[in-house]
Amino acid sequence: MISELRKVMPLRLQVSTLFLFIMWLFFQAYQPWLPIDQDLLYSTGSFDNVTDLSGWNREHGRVNWSDDTGYVSLTPSSRLRFNLPTVSGDLLLSSGKIKSEGITEGRHEWDAARIMVYFEDDSGQINWSHPHNVGFVSGDSDWQTFTTVIKVPAFAANGWIELAHYGKSGLAVFDDVTVNPAVWKKTYAHWQMFFGMTWAAMMMWLIINGNFWSHPWGRAILGCAFLIVVGVTLPPATMFEVASSGVKLSEKMWAAGTQAVSGSPEYSNASSNDSGNAPPAQITKAEKAQPQVTAGTVSQALPETSTQVSEETKPDKAQPQAISTTGFELKPATVQNMGHLALFCLLGFLVIKAYAFKYKPGLIAYSLALFAVSTEVLQLVIDGRLFGAVDLVLDLVGTAIGGIAALLLGHIHQLKRLL
To answer: Which of 176, 166, 111, 104 is nearest to 141 (CA)?
Structure first.
């Protein structure tokens, strides 16, 4: 059986596939952090009695609690927040259970039942580039437990854990929410080094056996792959700054292009004639409901704080405004995804251009897919990074688009030669 498999797939690809699977499996089972102190919420996140609600600040919306259930449920546009102590560099092990009942997502997948931990600077602004998501669910989902570690950033002057319902409908239910100071296990750095170096050695083995240096397209392929690896290993904050720079550059180019076009007579006439039909830019905002708490036989008014706008509704000073062009909004996350897609599209194009008639199509497709998977698995050893299924889909779609484009151009070139 092994000999038959080797006829279809080289040994180096078999070994690489096995290693990536073991690496992914290991980090699914291994918890690299260790709680070292008591719950910063003082066990109020269990919501076992009405006094647990006293430490939470209620935003607009409706919060339901009953002594028969021992959990809280939120209606759309409702939020609960708890103030956290902030010491720069500390690790906060955040965990919580979420259940969703008929929740319809908003514009983004995280516009649902959600738990997040975020920080404000001295001016009260929130830097959303820092990791802040604990977990989110939508639709009809039974209890799911989410756990993650978030590092307190240097700019943090104030910290919050927030339970929110950002969906359009349904009920968001939360229970067993905790935040504990934590430390990385001493073995974590060793495992990071081991798997990171083994991943690099595996890639070098594949590069050497691929004879990229001797092929006309080989160096271009290596350069594109190197840019992809750099992108997935950069810290999230750095990647966000790069994407934000792309947004600012696009904004300047769009403004310059609009100004140039508006100077032409055709544009001026069209603008004056159609100005009555063009709707002004509108900023939608959820209607602020009368804050209230329903607690079965017991009712207690939670303290209401000033409305804290999330990163999905109003970017702060640290996050550039999205560019709206005929309904399309350009945001740092969009720029990042577009760059991701473009690099893998280029990689697929170059690989097919170089090796389409040298190796079997199935082997080429498997090699490209394996590289895409390896870049996601590599992020398991990078602080603040995670294996992303959505990113993996973008990678595969990008390589497919690039490969198909290379094949089409090849066929067109052959037809031209025949004609």
So the answer is: 104
pLDDT at 8: 59
- 3-state secondary structure (DSSP) of residue 174: strand
Query: What is the pLDDT, as a whole number, of residue 381?
Result: 86
| 413: Cβ contacts below 8 Å, ≥ 6 apart | none
Q: Would you tell me how many other CB atoms lie within 10 Å of the CB of residue 186?
A: 8
Residue 117 pairs in a beta bridge with 161
Predicted TM-score (pTM) of the model is 0.67
Q: Which residues of the chain have pLDDT under 70?
A: 1-8, 67, 236-237, 239-240, 243-244, 246-247, 251, 257-333, 384, 419
173 neighbors 103 (Cβ within 8 angstroms) = no
**Would you state the pLDDT for residue 237?**
65
CA angle 7–11–14, rounded 5-degree value: 100
Give pLDDT tens digits for 87-127. Answer: 878 889 999 999 999 999 888 888 899 999 999 888 888 87
pLDDT at 126: 84
Cβ pair 133, 150 in contact under 8 A:
no
Of 224, 231, 229, 206, nearest in space to 353 by CA: 224
Cβ atoms of 50 and 300 closer than 8 Å = yes
Angle between helices 332-355 and 361-378 (to 10 degrees): 150
Task: Write the CB contacts of 289 (distance below 8 Å, at least 6 apart in sequence).
Answer: 60, 61, 62, 75, 77, 78
Q: Are 304 and 60 in contact (CB under 8 A)?
A: yes
Quote the CA–CA distance of 107 and 342 in Å, as a whole number.
Answer: 23
In terms of Cα–Cα distance, which of 325, 293, 36, 40 is closest to 159? 40
φ/ψ (deg, to 5) at 109: -65, -25
Which sign, positive or negative, has the C-alpha torsion 76, 59, 318, 391?
negative
Element (H, E) at 141: strand 139-151
Tokens 């691929």 belong to 210
Question: 1 exposed, middle or buried (CB, 10 Å; 0-12, 13-18, 19+)?
Answer: exposed
Q: Give the integer Cα–Cα distance in Å for 16 and 19.
A: 5
Q: Tell me the per-residue pLDDT of 247-293, one tens digit each, with 9 for 90 and over.
A: 677 767 777 766 665 554 444 444 344 333 333 333 343 333 344 44
Three-class SS state of 159: strand
In our burial notation (b when 16+ CB lie closer than 10 A, e otherwise), range 359-382 reads: eeeeebbebbeebbbbbbbbbbbe
